[in-house]
Write the structure tokens for this entry.
Amino acid sequence: YASEEAVTFFNTAISLDEETPGLSTDTRRARWHEQLGEAYYALGKHDESRTHLNHALTLMGNRPPGPMWRHLTGLLWGVLVQTKHRLSGHSPAPAAETPDPLLISAARANERLCQIYYMDNAKIQSMNAAVTALNFAERAGTSPELARSYANVSVTTALVTAYSLSNMYERLALKTGTTVGHVASLAYAHEVVGLYHAGAGHFQQAGERMADSIALADTIGDLR
């Protein structure tokens, strides 16, 4: 969490790369910008974070939406992909030792954009980023990113009061988080699902999920 140092080092790397054409690749540059976006997010600099996350996605060949209509069409397309997966009983591949780094980075970038848009009360943009992150994560296979994305989409579906879908994504999030064994992501999944239940007025379930999240976070010393 030495975010200021991370910002300095990544910006230095990017500057050196720009001074020497051909020194690096778009894949490496994309990962630099994605991680730089993470560092700026940790510092509370959301505008800078969003700029670098979008640049990372562009370098990956996944140009982020601009106008609202593109967010809306992207969301509709993402929902169609999810509908197909759920109706076909789609199951992500088992966790790979070396998952595709571009798919994972794209999932992470969209996951973070989802949170930034959510805090900006930009609902359509947030929903689009959440579903897009999930579709990338499912392509990459079983992973911590997949568990977190299922949890995020449980909130996305709750925003349109599709609680039966929220419950389904809750089950997928907790199952995936348990399977992967990544405690921080499982704690996050419990927390986010708890937020869904709190917003829906399911206070007993919200309390249970939050308590589970706190207990898991305690095991790894995560005081956040």
The CA atoms of residues 64 and 168 lie 28 Å apart. Residues 68-87 form the longest helix (20 residues).
